[in-house]
């Protein structure tokens, strides 16, 4: 946010960032809050395995990721899970079977800007492993990983590493 220096209201080079979530102009009354964005991550589980995607875009291209994404305005977190799983994997789900597990803060670094997010973790259990139709503009591959073999360093985001470390304990 430090790169933003010019006020969009008065045009002066007087825009300041408070290092947390507020941009304000010292010459006029302009204020913009850069608050936390909601995002979802879905643990697709079949018995003792989790389905991961491989990111095809920055940030963290090539690393493992849980399916999910940002919550759109006027959309519930559950609706986001349904939309994202359909977009990324062509996987239709029954939202009543989603189980919310918890949340973690995260920073999503994209094109020079850090977006603070609140990642909401869900579990969706499937009876059989599937081979999805991948949306290659979003994900480059998909793999099933045994929970006991999970390499946390291969995960793209801190929030997922932190959450899954706690979540896998009962499976160990």
UniProtKB/TrEMBL annotation:
Pfam families: NUDIX
Xref: InterPro entries: NUDIX_hydrolase-like_dom_sf (IPR015797), NUDIX_hydrolase_dom (IPR000086)
Name under which the protein is recorded: NUDIX domain-containing protein
PANTHER family named in the record: NUDIX HYDROLASE 23, NUDIX HYDROLASE 23, CHLOROPLASTIC
Annotated signal peptide: none
């Amino acid at each position: 946010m430090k790169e933003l220096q010019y006020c969009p209201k008065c045009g002066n080079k007087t825009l300041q960032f408070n290092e947390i979530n507020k941009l304000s102009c010292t010459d006029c009354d302009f204020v913009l809050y850069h608050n936390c964005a909601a995002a979802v991550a879905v643990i697709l589980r079949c018995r003792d395995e989790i389905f991961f995607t491989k990111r095809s875009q920055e940030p963290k291209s090539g690393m493992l990721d849980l399916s999910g994404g940002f919550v759109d305005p006027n959309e519930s977190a559950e609706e986001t899970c349904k939309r994202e799983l359909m977009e990324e994997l062509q996987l239709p789900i029954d939202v009543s079977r989603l189980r919310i597990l918890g949340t973690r803060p995260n920073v999503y670094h994209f094109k020079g800007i850090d977006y603070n997010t609140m990642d909401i973790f869900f579990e969706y259990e499937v009876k059989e492993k599937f081979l999805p139709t991948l949306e290659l503009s979003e994900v480059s591959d998909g793999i099933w990983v045994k929970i006991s073999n999970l390499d946390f360093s291969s995960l793209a985001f801190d929030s997922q590493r932190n959450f899954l470390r706690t979540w896998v304990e009962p499976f160990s």
